[in-house]
Amino acid sequence: MQKSTDVIAGRNPVNEAIRSGRAIESILIAKGELNGSVKVIAAKAKAQKIPIKEVDKKKLDFLCGGAVHQGIVALAAIKEYSTVDDIFALARERDEKPFIIVLDEIEDPHNLGAIIRTAECAGAHGIIIPKRRAAGLSYTVGKSSAGAYEYMPVARVTNLPAVLDELKERGCWIYGADMDGQVYCSSDLTGACALVIGSEGNGLGRLVREKCDVILSLPMCGKINSLNASVAAGVLMYEFTRQRLNLKAK
Q1: DSSP-derived secondary structure letter, 118
Q2: Is the per-residue pLDDT at 200 higher than 80?
Q3: How far is CA 200 from the centre of its chain?
Q4: Which of 22, 113, 122, 217 is deepest in the core (most CB within 10 A)?
Q5: Do the beta carbons of residue 106 and residue 135 sit within 8 Å?
Q6: pLDDT for residue 216 is more than 60
Q7: What does the pLDDT read at residue 1?
Q8: Model pTM score
């Protein structure tokens, strides 16, 4: 069950959460309730590009643990999102070259949580995710990250290709993980960089791939030609970390 702090129930509380600008992952509306004040609230949510889903009333009852929800619930992020500037600030604070993980439409919250956990352990300075068609900082993500989300800045952006251009302007090389690239351990990964991981089903989107300076691939020696997104991300992140630690040791 969701933590109570992750669930905002009732028309006035949901309306105020939207008005205050709180980070909201989605709005759930009971089937048949999309009218009157609920319809007004839904319009405000839509204007802020917050996903809206119609669900069975029983789901809202379950999420709220019996509390009155008036047919509408907001699922809020477990923490406020950071900014890209926050990620660069952390790199400066550590006196390190930026090491950023960019996720292109990772939709499985367990994958996102696992990536956050590995990124924190591997010394990354932050993660960038898109606002649309991607998992956000939900309770499931927090649990899957084993608490690592508390220490890992996560920025949520509207236009991923544009942000990759910004990262390039700020001195980062963009490395995409995909098929038909060069073997991942053959590249120099010690500079300021961003590692881009594609979605579970489709890999890197066309526009995102075009923004990458280098495509890295993992050798596939078995009969299956791909890894789970979080596993692939973990292998690649630790190659970046290995090279950066070796450079420090010299």
Answers
A1: H
A2: yes
A3: 13
A4: 113
A5: yes
A6: yes
A7: 34
A8: 0.83
8 Å CB contact between 203 and 179:
yes
Task: Quote the distance between the C-alpha of residue 224 and its chain's center.
Answer: 26
| Mean residue pLDDT across the chain | 90
What is the Cα–Cα distance from 234 to 73, expressed in whole angstroms? 35
Q: How far is residue 250's CA from residue 248's CA, in Å, rounded to a whole number?
A: 6
The pLDDT score that the predictor gives to residue 49 is 83
User: Could you tell me the two tokens for 100?
Assistant: 């950023």
* Kind and range of the H or E run holding 177: strand 173-183
Nearest-angstrom CA–CA distance, 124 and 58: 41
| Pairing status of strand 193-197 against strand 99-103 | parallel
The DSSP line for 87-116 is HHHHHHHTT---EEEEESS---HHHHHHHH
**pLDDT one-digit tens code per residue, 147-194:** 899 999 999 999 999 999 999 999 999 999 988 888 998 999 999 999
Do 60 and 8 contact (CB within 8 A), yes or no? no
* C-alpha distances out from residue 93 to 35, 98, 172, Å: 50, 11, 17
